[in-house]
Every structure is written in structure tokens, then in C-alpha cells.
Amino acid sequence: MIGDKKVLFSGMQATGNLTLGNYLGALKNWIDLADEYECFYSVVDLHSITIRQDPAELRRRARSLLTLYIAAGLDPEKNCIYYQSHVSGHAELAWILNCFTYMGELNRMTQFKDKAAKHADNINAGLYTYPVLMAADILLYQADVVPVGKDQLQHLEITRDIAQRFNNIYGDVFTIPEAYVGKVGAKIMSLQDPSKKMSKSDENPNGSIYLMDDPDTIIRKFKRAVTDSEACVRYSEEQPGIRNLIDIYCVCTGKTPAEVEKEFDGKGYGDFKLAVGEAVVSVLKPIHSRFDELTKDKAYIDSIIKKNAEKAEYYALKTLRKVQKKVGFPERIR
Fold first, then answer.
1. Mean pLDDT over residues 61-77, rounded?
2. Which residue out of 5, 28, 118, 197 is catalytically annotated?
3. Which residue among the candidates 6, 115, 221, 273 is catalytic per the annotation?
4. Are residues 309 and 257 in the same domain?
5. Residue 196 annotated to the active site
6. Any catalytic annotation for residue 183?
7. Which residue range(s) make up the domain with 117?
8. Is residue 32 domain-shared with residue 104, that is, in the same domain?
9. Is 200 marked active-site?
10. How many domains in the chain?
């Protein structure tokens, strides 16, 4: 707790480009949480280097992501938006927590197995201990809740296990985080393979709408979206491609699936896909405009980076000093 508010932590990697799925499924729903929670949103660039990165490109993407957080509607005066690498407590706590994490627990992490298969030429220790750094991210701010998708639930569970283990030895040090259960974001699927989530790392660029795609690119991708042979706009399990497009259209327009079916009754897929594309363009247009404004205002973004890093570090150090004392590190002489 900070004041009378519970703490919420989340973060995104500064690799790849944010997709429409990231926005509609997560970012859009974060905007109103500041009224209820003390929110920390990190650009998790420490996590990014488990895979080799071009340094200049990583810096550019990190700044772009932080700017996009703000452009999408997160108020940096109400939310702490910061670079993970600017708060050394993340790495310091991760090392301590490594010493309270068992090899067997890390061996069970399915994401490590998936990533190791994709990056067989660079299976590094950071990739292996990634869940411990994630645990440090969460526990450092005494987070009460963490918004997680199904693919991250395993990481939250190991975070809880590590925290409980530490608390059992040293007393009530860490808040045990819960999965955030609130407004459910739309689950947006790939436009080319509706059995898979829309992803930043999709090998087929036509499968994902990226947040900074221009209007012509967005329309073109929707025109190429996979449908089926039924040739009617119907919301059903048998039509996963059309169902996905209806979900996107509903989130962008506020309409229900039944209203969408009625609106496009008797119309072909061509008309429908164009309408979905135009609805997405309409939603993203103000984000693009705000992003362009913010990108030009270097001094403002720099001030946010500095101010929020100081705020994050203040709360991080409160936890880190307590942990260091508990494990027996010498007190610092000031």
C-alpha cells in the first residue's frame, strides 16, 4: 500500500512494436486504474538484453515505448512511468532473490523452454533466471496486484513462492501479489492465423496491426485478413477469423456482436473488413497525433524520465534496504 491505495505493477519490453492487441488488451484498460491504484509501469529494458540487441535501436525503442505509454493516455503525473534500467534496485534485488529460488522451480518454466528453442545459439543465464528478475520487478514495489495474461501466470506463481519463502524465513517483508482481476481487455488474435494471439514477434507482418502503422497499411492488412467460405458476418466459433474482426470492431465502436451482425447483414466480407480497418484507424489517429507532439518535445519527455525514475527509486530503495538488512548485509554509513 502507498497511502490508501494498493500498488499495481506492470511493464512491457522495449523490443518489437506494440500491436493493436497490446493496446486493446492491456494499455487501453490501464488508463483509468490510477484512480484506484498507485501504478508503476516500467519499460523493462533489463529483460530485453537476454536476446542480443543493437544498442542504439534498444535506446530508441525504449524511449518510443515510454512516449507511447503517455500518448495512449497514461498520465505521467498519476502513474510512475520509468525505465527499469534506471532503478538499480531491480538488479540488486534479483540477485538476492536468486539465492532464494530453486533450480527445480526454474527448470519448470515453460517460457524458458520456448525461448531457448527459438534462440538456441544464445541460451544464457539471464534467459534462465528471467522469472527471478520479474519477481524482483514486482516485489520491489510491494505490488498488491499484477495484470497478467495466461502466458505470465506461471511467472506470478513463482514470484509468490519466492516471496512466501523469504517471508517464512525473515518475517513479513514482501507483499504477496495477486493477479489483477478487473476489466477484461479484448483478446485480439492474428489477422492471418486467428488461432494465435496478435503478437509483436509474429513472423508474418500482415498478422499484426502495429500501433504506429499508418492508415494505408492498416486498411491493407485488414483487407488481407483471413476469413472463411461462409461469406456472412456472423459471430461464431466456426468462423474464428470473422469472430476476431467482430471483436476488434466492437471494441473500437462500442457496439455488440449482435449489432454488428445486423449492421452487415447481407453485406460481403470486403465491406466489413474495410469498416473494421477504418474503425481502427479512427481509434489510433489521436494516439499517432499525440505521439508526434511528444516526440518533438524532448525536454518534456526528459523531465518525465528523470522525475519518474526518482519516484520509482525512492520506493524501490525502501524495500531493498529492508531486504538487505534482513539477509545480513552491513548497514551503509552515510
1. 95
2. 197
3. 115
4. no
5. no
6. no
7. 6-181+298-327
8. yes
9. yes
10. 2
